[in-house]
Amino acid sequence: MWPGVLPDWITGFTVQAILVAIFCIGIWLWFANKQTVVPSKKQFLGELGYNLIRNTIARDVLAENFRPYLPYLLALASFVIVNNLCGEFFLFMFPTTAKIGYVYGLALLSWILYNSVGIRKYGFFGYLKHSTMPAGVPGPLYILIIPLEFLSNIIVRPVTLALRLFGNMFAGHLVVLVVVLGGTLLIENGMKSNLGLVAAGVGSFLFSFAIFALELLVACIQAYIFTILTAQYVSSSLAEEH
Amino acid sequence: MIPLDIAITGSINLIGYALATLGPALGVAWIFASVINGTARQPEARGAMMGTAFIGFAVVEALAIFALALFFVVL
User: Fold this and answer.
1) CATH superfamily, with its number, for domain B15-73
2) Predicted-assembly ipTM surpassing the 0.85 threshold
3) Nearest Cβ partner of A164 from B50, B51, B65?
4) Chain A contact probe: residue of B1, B31, B68 with most A CBs at under 10 A
5) Residue B53 and residue B31 in contact, taking contact as beta carbons nearer than 8 Å
6) pLDDT tens string A54-100
């Protein structure tokens, strides 16, 4: 945006991510403002969203000691879902998470969280042993198991976490683009000579509504999966056995 | 047929990616089919099954995600 006025790294997407973050903070402050024992409509709505994260993600996955991680999970879920839904709503029409840098940042945060939680509980070498040496494996197999587990638990996890979200949002947005632009192209070219092409273009436009509905679903599901996998990774680096 | 002034360009990698998604697709389908089966048989075990299912889902889908990464990287 505005070359020369602001530094180069402030692009439209940075502004969008910052606005989304402000929106998330604002809406949770608004929900938490003036709480009463008998909830108002606003507080009821806020508690609905909060309970969804608390009960189905944090408490189910992290069992009894879920409380310290709940603020992070709630912030992560609301930030990711609003960023994803930016792709389907006016004003932005582009999911921030379809730019790969933002998902790398989010995955890095989760990576730091689940590793530091494990290191705090077991110590550095204790955590490495805990996460790369599952119990009950016969001795010689550790030659094979340790590199594989290290690769899978420390390196691959954040990469797949990031790429899953990026891939889904990017591909979904691309499909919408293909259907809508294809429809436009068919109608424009069919107007002169071929009415069959116009019919195909109109069909393509109608189909784009179905794709949009699918994208709304995918945006919510991916935010849910991102959060639940983060919780799962935290829970597996805290787990007692294995 | 269509008088359009466009040419289709692209990478044959896409076909490789398409093939690579078949296995993870079956795997993910199988994992969640098993969870549905298990929930139908014993609804109270749903929480425990979902935890394992999401770990397995992440591992299985990693293969498709590697293919996506290689699809972009390998030219």
Assistant:
1) F1F0 ATP synthase subunit C (1.20.20.10)
2) no
3) B65
4) B68
5) yes
6) 988 888 888 888 899 999 999 999 999 999 999 888 888 889 999 99
